[in-house]
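Ticket #4471: structure export looks truncated?
Reporter: QA, pipeline team
Priority: medium

Steps to reproduce: submit the single chain below to the structure queue and open the exported record.
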Amino acid sequence: MSTKYSNFNLLKVEDIGDSDSDDQGDQNPATPPKKSTKVHKHSDRHSNSPSKRASKQQPQQPQLDFKVDPVYHKAQPGVEQKPQPVHKSTPVHKQKPVLEQKPEPIQQPAHKSQQPQQPQQPSQTQSIPAKPSKKQAIVTRTIWTFIMVFGFFGCLMAGHAWLIMLVMLCQSLSYREVTALFGFKTEYGVRAKNSEKDRWSTILNWYFFVVTNYFLYGESIIYYLKHIIFADVYFIQLAKHHRFISFMLYIIGFMGFVANLKRSFLKRQFVLFCWVHMSLLLIVLSSHFIVNNILEGIIWFWVPASLVICNDIFAYVFGMLFGKTPLIALSPKKTVEGFIGGGIATVLFAWGWGTIFQQWKYMICPVHDLGTSIFSQVECVPNPVFIWREFEIPSMISALLSTMTQRDITIIPYTPFQIHCLFMATFASVVAPFGGFFASGFKRAFDIKDFGDSIPGHGGLTDRMDCQFLMGLFAYVYYSSLIREAHVSAGQVLQTIVSSLRADEQLELFSDFKKYLESQNYLS
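Actual output as written to the record:
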């Protein structure tokens, strides 16, 4: 009996159904069902065949879908060959629903296999509108380019005050972009997202920004606008104690930082403290020197900034036409040919560009009234660098030039400012681009393309000001060291004496100054 049962165990459910449909099964309908039921009972005890288990537990099939699925996968070839319907045998009727339900579990895996292909369709449709998005980006970039150009020229014509506000706006946006990178893709940023927010640190960051600007711009206004500041009773007190007030404001911020320290934020807060002060040094201090250039004369701000833009354009053009040799690893698109070609073109451009603007007193005169604009009547004694001079050409060179041009050329008119423009153009071509390389390395460290999105289509404002900060710092140092002359008026000196000295000190100063004038024979 065990041998027979073991042979029956090897049979599939389909084989049992087919044997019941023969003529022999019709003649003896009672005997085969008994054997089949015995085989099923015995196989349930001794056999692990999934087909037998499915035939026995078929009435509870909705609860055993996951166990019956392997049977359907094995019986998958039987789906193509549909069995003949059987009506006489009761076990066959019990097995028939199993055969009818085979297509359902077979279709489910087929349906699941098609699911991974469905996400590919939207991906293909998303790649189709690539050209419109690129065109839209070009249109946006072009529109904002014109907005920036016309906005800049509008501030240039509006006067010194508008240019100063423009610089302060640029430094504020750049400071926001740089400090925002602290929590971007760093371990401190991840920890900050996973823990409670430290809002006081953000408030203190901007507090230090405001205090630094108060100190730096206060120094500039007091220096260049003494005749206005010391004419007011309240401004006199602020001007006399400006540095002490600035220092105490900084101390308040320092105490607030220490009081806000938390154990869970210690390392992050101290690193952020250093980050903020480096941003103040590189951005706010450089902007302060740019503002000083504006107060010394708009030309000391306008020409250096124009030379940086000019060098950027010519370097791009020469790089596109002749560029083959990479210049620096941080910027693979920068080439040696573009670097050299842009430098030569910038130096030639500087000579004519400086000649055009040195003729306007609105551009060369230091500020005496913040309400001055291009429509104002500006009068001042020009700095000697803007006065025309004559360079006498050597006789041999003069004869050669006269022969070539058929004219008598013995002198070349020039101004010292034109020569200074050549030096500034050299710096703008050789050194200023390294400010951009520095910014590129900084962005690569954070694996980002732009510092932000302050300017639509152009990225962050820091991406446009990286070279300008370095160039503005150089222009201030160059001017204050080699060109600046004392332009303090007698009224400013008198105002300082009246506001700063006591009555006895004023009399002592008058006596000493009188003796000096008599010794120089100015009073005789």
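Status: closed, not a bug. The export was complete when the record was re-opened. Leaving a note from the reviewer for reference: The longest strand covers residues 331-335.
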